[in-house]
UniProtKB/TrEMBL annotation:
The gene is secE. Belongs to the SecE/SEC61-gamma family. It comes from the Bacteria. This is Protein translocase subunit SecE. It is found in: Membrane. Component of the Sec protein translocase complex. Heterotrimer consisting of SecY, SecE and SecG subunits. The heterotrimers can form oligomers, although 1 heterotrimer is thought to be able to translocate proteins. Interacts with the ribosome. Interacts with SecDF, and other proteins may be involved. Interacts with SecA. GO terms for molecular function: protein transmembrane transporter activity. GO terms for cellular component: plasma membrane. Essential subunit of the Sec protein translocation channel SecYEG. Clamps together the 2 halves of SecY. May contact the channel plug during translocation. One of its GO terms (biological process) is protein targeting. Its main location: membrane. The chain crosses the membrane at residues 7-25, 31-48, 83-107. It comes from Candidatus Nitrosoglobus terrae. InterPro entries: SecE_bac (IPR005807), SecE_sf (IPR038379), Translocase_SecE/Sec61-g (IPR001901).
């Protein structure tokens, strides 16, 4: 039940802030954006105190820990792999182009359009 109240308060805060953002449309845009960001931060802080919010924070910290475990390739390996991929793309594109030219020649020959 407490989570429902927290969700409601956070939603009302965001809704009110959004309404005020547009209500004061003739005022300074940076101030309106700043107020909206403050309301968003407070709403997120309220939501972080819910059961689902704690689960999301837990998931986020576990994800960051997994990212730290990844063995990222060195720059030299990344550059070499990128060059190999580019060369293969050019090679396959050239082969497909040649095959297309051959098929066009055969079709022109068969349809009597001449070569």
């Amino acid at each position: 039940m407490a989570d429902i109240i927290k969700f409601t308060v956070a939603l009302l805060l965001l809704g009110t802030a959004t309404g005020l953002f547009y209500y004061f449309g003739d005022h300074s845009t940076p101030l309106r954006v700043f107020g909206l960001l403050i309301a968003l931060g407070i709403s997120l802080a309220i939501l972080a105190k819910t059961v689902r919010g704690q689960a999301i924070l837990n998931f986020t910290s576990e994800t960051q820990a997994e990212f730290r475990k990844i063995a990222w390739p060195a720059q030299q390996e990344t550059t070499r792999t990128t060059l190999i991929v580019l060369l293969m793309v050019v090679a396959v594109a050239s082969i497909l182009w040649l095959f297309d030219m051959l098929l066009m020649w055969v079709v022109r020959l068969l349809t009597g359009q001449g070569v």
